[in-house]
Amino acid sequence: MPFALLRYGLSKGHRPFRDIPATPDLKRSYDVVIIGGGGHGLAAAWYLSNQHGIRSVAVLEKGYLAGGNTARNTTTIRSNYLTSESIRFYREAVSLYESMSEDLGFNVMFSQRGQLTLAHSDATMRSFHLRAEMGKLAGARIEVVDAQTVRELCPHLHMDEGGLHEVLGGLWHADGGTARHDAVAWGYARGAAAKGVEIHQRTTVTAIRSTGDRVTEIETNRGTIRAGQVIQATGGLNGQVAELAGIRLPIRCFPLQAMVTQPLKPFLDILLSSANLHTYLVQSSRGEIVIGGGSDPYQLASTRSSFDQKVHLAQGALHLFPFLHNVKLLRQWAGITDMTPDYSPIMGASPLSNYWLDAGWGTWGFKATPVAGKYMAECVATGKVPDIIAPFALTRFDRFALLNEMGATAASH
Amino acid sequence: MTARLPAPWGTRIVRDTALTFSFDGTSHCGLAGDTVASALLAEGRWVLSRSFKYHRPRGPQSMAGLEANTLVQIGSEPNVRADRRPLTEGMAVRAQNTTHGADRDLGSVLDRFGRFMPVGFYYRSFFGPSRSSWLKFWEPLIRRSAGLGVVDTALGEGHYQRRNLQCDVLVVGAGPAGLAAARTAAAAGAEVVIVDSEPETGGALTYARNGSAALAQARSGLDGVTILTGATCNGWYTDNFLPVIQGDTLFRVRAAQVIVASGTQDQPLVFRNNDLPGIVSASAVQRMMRHYAIRPGSAAVVFAGTPHGIAAALDLHEAGVPVRAVLVPPEAVDLPTEPLAEAGLRVLKGARIQGAHGKRRLTALDVTTASGRETIACDLAVIDAGATPGYQLPLHAGAQLGFDDASQRFTLSNLPANMHLAGSVAGCFAPDAVIASGERAGAQAAVALGLAASLPDVPDDAQAHFHRTFPVSDPDPKGRDFVDVDEDLQVKDIVNAVADGYAELELVKRYSTVGMGPSQGRHSALQTARILARETGRTVGEIGITTARPPFGPEKLGVLAGPLRSQERRTPLNARHRAAGARMGPAGAWWRPMVYGDGPTAELAAQEVRMVREDVGMLDVSTLGKLAIRGPDAGAFLDRIYTMAHANQPVGRVRYCLMLNEMGSVIDDGVAWRMAPDHFYVTATTGAVDRVFSDMSWWNAQWRMQVDIQNVTAGFAAINVTGPHARAALEALAGDIDLGREAFPFLEGRSGTLGGCPVRIMRIGFTGELSFELHTPRSYAPHLWDLLEGAGVRPYGLEASRILRLEKGHIIIGQDTDALSTPDELGMQWAISRKKPFYLGKPAVDKRRAIGLARTLCRFELPESAFGEVGESCLVMADGKPVGHVTSVAVSPTVGKLIGLAHAGAEPGQGIAIRTRSGVEVQAPLVGHAFYDPQNARQEA
Fold first, then answer.
1. Does residue A266 contact residue A237 with C-beta atoms inside 8 Å?
2. Is A29 part of any domain?
3. How close A272 gets to chain B, by Cα (Å)?
4. Do B556 and A399 touch (CB under 8 A)?
5. In a domain, A14, yes or no
6. pTM
7. Transmembrane ranges (chain A) (predicted)?
8. Residue-level pLDDT at A4
9. How far is CA A76 from the centre of its chain?
10. Nearest CB partner across the interface for A331, out of B120, B520, B568
11. Which positions of chain B have pLDDT values less than 50?
């Protein structure tokens, strides 16, 4: 690929790549309207246009492209979940990431460096054993490792021998990795736009009108459109948007804080997280250390920064790497996580026959981007909910057929 | 080495105190009071770093830490701002991200290949030829070349302080406006703290031309004001919570009112090679000369876009630096330039800078005027292209940023009611206007506090229109016209990002990385907005800047984390355990005895189990959560919180408590002893008590019942004395409580004294034996423990406790339960009141009961030999699929088998199939009752 750069460099002037077309005027009607121009919505648009031949698609984005949780997450990709249903689903996500740059012709910088989660207590070791057993059964690369292996996988880690947070072992997930979040969204947007999908930035849905069990019209700040089918994928705003359609979702919003240091030469190759310290670290390809893990302990639909979580994350990071104390923080930020009671997402059918939900992504949405897009597109294209996402139906809450991922998600990423 | 300017230049340096240090291995000499950068400048070293992408030589531009140019490694510390860090003796300073130091970096070859690195180039390349190419080849290459400083993995822990500070008024910025505000608010009776990141108060007066007279005035009348210098207010958080960092100390400041007098940040001018060392801002050159007596060059050109530039030119002239020309741009031709003419300086009106020449230092500027183009030889270019207000804190607080097209300046509006602006951040520039705006802000804060103060008017600022910023030209055909020096971004990079479709400011930032470097857009935000506005036909005001977020400046992780990184808790009996040879282990935040004595843990635990079963033992249970629930509604309150009935619970009775969440899942358990009609003493599990306490408080904030909730966990120690001889052992201690079976039956509580210690005793336990749980104020605990030992009671540890409870079939919440566990599937229907109209989780319990059980928690047993192969977290299988897992397992010394608890299907029948560690399934028979004493005869004895 550097040949392309060579060719570029030797040519005169900048020939624009035009990845994201300018926002066009809204048409009166589309076969499919996707509410939410984040990773999930754009991935769905890409699958609809590139795999199902459905090109009359409008993606409506309230702000700038992929500016919500796609822009704010800390880019962990993994499949070491607790339930068979989740492991199967996220395993497909990982494999779609493996071929994503190639599929999109756009470097999303998927870097499968492996993820190590640390245990500092017997209880955590128990939960790791369970996740490893479940993972092995499903054929995923997940194993419990001892303290010595932890030391080898992460050479500079403070093991706290004899201390309160002594590292007893870890959960090693060789499939785990990271990718450039913006590039994932842009890659899908670019590929979808090339097939005729319209991307409307700064377009806010203000009302959703339905007749009987069908959505008929979507009202926006730029005009009203008719829609054959609708996908809702609005991240932290899922609860609010669903209410416009008259659907109540079992979602509570919590701000999730993250931060990043100034760039440094590489010293941490793997993705490291600690379940007990509610902290995880990854060093980006720019050399910055991204630190995350803490949700504010109260419900709030705001992305304001909070100080206590920053302190908490700094303490966690320094517990793992005490020598980082004179490294400087560059920036902190927050996203709104839409948490469900069982820490699993809501996908598929809604009470309205042509309205499809992609919600409840809490702190685990980025890693599901390709697979959620793939199967949401399939819902719309075939009118049927594919088996792989059927367990994540909204109706599971009425049946209490919950998919418990507490302890395997959220803080421990 | 260049000679320093004579006094009075150099207000910060101590000329007779020399300090030696090194840069890239070369020894240098500086003076006390120098920063690292000023000492290097005095030694003639202008190249402090190499740029991020092209490895171009870079030197200080702002002398105020506004750009990444001055980042150096000092010893083990990466990314130190050399223009802010005071020099100390023996410092080893190194340039970062270079091959052979700042002056000889072979990476500079990259500067010639810029055309092959268009904006966003890494998205279009580096992902072939195979799928793993990025991971294995390209990413490591990029990671090695990216990154600035080096982490010293051998570095020990740091030492940091944390202090809390509350005040009526926090003034951020101790320039003339901030000082006037502080003076006015303090005079009205407010408690005032003023902070400034410079080492002294006075702000711009300390380096401005003719500032010294006003400086003395500004610093007067501050009695009673707390002044923190060298202290940076690094962010604004909700309710005026403001972290202030002074060295390695974090002040957590809570202020009723905040006055932001943060001044302005000089903006660079964009032209070809505008990043060359020797090109500096007007305030930077004034800081160099007045603070450090640096002779900044041998021939200077000054770009005077505002009155500051004129003053800087006169300063240079006065200091004896030849000023070859003063350039007044067309937008500013009405600037009063008479003083320049009087000083005999050459003034070029209507002039623009086209570009600069030089390799490691500026050698000449290309200048155009109406009369043509000329090249002026110089090694110093002073750029006064206006400034942006210090908008960061107001924007953190939700203020709105606007742009005034007439003055070409950012403006701030919509401030929160408890924040006020003063001085140049508010658009005041003339000295009397600055001071008046400070006085007005101080008075506004005082009035908001309910103090008497009159609000002075701010006079019209006749100079305000001179303070403006300047446009960006079209991309230079030869490039190297930098918008963002941190990230090596040129005008064309921003233009091309827009052309590639990234036409929103946030997308431009993310695609080009503009503003993402260490200076976080301080010097690039305005010009980026300008270019984007031009390219998209919008106004600068519509574009604005990307979301401003804390921290304002870099902050060390150590400063944030503070002195105490992990909060370890020890019970009052900790010393006794250690003296008794206990092996201590962590349990949440606590240290607890696991077993006592030397030898294999399993054997010691088995001995302790036998001791409890046959004789008597004691366990330190001080870590248990303890809550005092008091008030007329105490019983009714617990009725809502827990599943059993408490409103009708007799005084003296102890009742089990089970807490559910709204899903009907079990989240905690404990006991509640009604000590009086309006007083319950409630226990919660060690790890959950903080959450239980906050949940209770949260619910009562909604229910508003007459109840007071207190977490008294740390106030009481607790010792559980258990075993067939427990009563006899306690009766050996003098006390006033009748411990007889009839007088003090199972599940009752009594208070009184025992061995002279005030105690609360409950007849409860976790072992299945006759048990008395003694709670005593923590200061009495060691004495009570000693008395018990004297009576022949020996301690046992957590390992034995876990076996004892499992033998009796008691569950541990969190180990034998998960987020979905209902009381029904745990076989705890007995703990659910059927009569109560409401308790937390009841609607879900009813609904889930109607749906039916999805699984059950069951007891299984296996021969002892299965130990190791069958362990906790082994899967329970049915028809080749996992239906549950083993939650607890232990070898029972009492029943001589491996016993355990496991989640299994709804109707597991007689046995379950457990998948062992080696992957085979074994059949384990189920046990329908507690493994030990199913009739409960022993605990009720």
1. no
2. yes
3. 16
4. no
5. no
6. 0.94
7. none
8. 66
9. 8
10. B520
11. none
